[in-house]
Design a protein that fits this description.
308 residues; alpha/beta; Glucose Oxidase, domain 1; nine-stranded mixed beta sheet; two-stranded antiparallel ribbon
Length: 308
């Protein structure tokens, strides 16, 4: 079933192909200029630091519904091994990890999504092989550092956790920005809190996954018009799921990654940061969130650090 014409109309409105040149592989991350980074650095007032990463463990959020995307499996490969063979001298222990690069807190590479034979900037989907992404891989992102803005949609609506399947609109994002007293500026990195990750903290992995609240088709033009550099949520899917239309599955992924070149993040743990923002009324901060640069990777784990 082809995507509906309404989807293609929206895709034409938000498309960024060629905006930063025909060879561009970074998309909206180009909006993070030196000036934008200075703006982010100017948000640091107290030095308080918040990790937004989920723990990397076998108890992570993946439940097997995405084949191969496994939680980290850590094993020991050496235990108190003496360098010289003499255990009275220097000994070392090492371990190794097998994991899906998108298993916990991560950014998606622009090459992660495709349709109609295309990825971002019009590159063919044949640039992705079992060797990885020759174009638009996670290693092409470069540093992701700038002004972070928390849009606490849940608190703005007066709830701790948005209902599963709630479709976040541009109006919801405006309301959250108004509640935070912030104006979104070009190059900002926007973090959208639904509160859903609380379910994971409470041991409800099933409730954390589906149905999931998240940005809807009615949020896409909002993000394009404000020239957001990157956007992340505290859910496993990122966008509202089940999808709004049966004839367009995960359409926000397609519009963001393929059409706009907008880097998406999932599984950001925003709870401690959101509580502090609600306490002091400050919803902007310096965000350092560069993914691990797996060459040709389709995503990259990250430990985002918000500094206020």
């Amino acid at each position: 079933m082809p995507l509906p014409e309404e989807f293609h109309e929206l895709a034409r409105k938000v498309n960024n192909w060629g905006r930063w040149g025909p060879e561009d592989e970074r998309g909206t991350l180009n909006l993070i200029t030196d000036e934008v980074v200075r703006r982010g650095a100017g948000c640091v007032r107290t030095g308080k630091r918040f990790s937004l990463a989920m723990p990397l463990s076998a108890d992570g959020p993946q439940m097997g519904f995405i084949p191969g995307r496994i939680n980290p499996l850590r094993t020991m490969i050496s235990l108190n091994s003496p360098v010289t063979g003499d255990p009275t001298q220097a000994c070392f222990s090492d371990d190794a990890v097998v994991m899906g690069v998108q298993c916990a807190t991560h950014w998606d590479a622009l090459a992660h999504a495709s349709y109609d034979g295309r990825i971002y900037n019009g590159f063919g989907w044949d640039t992705i092989t079992f060797n990885g992404a020759a174009r638009c891989g996670i290693d092409k992102t470069g540093p992701i550092v700038g002004r972070g803005v928390l849009l606490d949609v849940a608190r703005a609506k007066g709830v701790d956790i948005l209902d599963g399947g709630y479709a976040i609109t541009g109006e919801d994002l405006d309301a959250a920005a108004d509640a935070a007293g912030v104006t979104i500026e070009p190059g900002d990195i926007v973090l959208i809190r639904t509160g859903q990750i609380r379910r994971f903290h409470q041991g409800d992995k099933v409730g954390y996954t589906f149905p999931s609240p998240g940005p809807s088709l009615k949020s896409v033009e909002w993000m394009r018009s404000r020239d957001i550099a990157a956007v992340a949520t505290d859910t496993i899917v990122f966008e509202v799921y089940p999808s709004e239309r049966a004839d367009a599955q995960l359409p926000v992924h397609l519009l963001h990654l393929v059409e706009m070149g907008l880097t998406q993040g999932q599984n950001f743990d925003l709870e401690a940061l959101a509580a502090d923002c609600a306490d002091d009324g400050v919803y902007t901060f310096l965000l350092s969130a560069t993914p691990e640069p797996f060459v040709a990777g389709l995503g990259g784990p990250v430990i985002p650090i918000a500094i206020k």
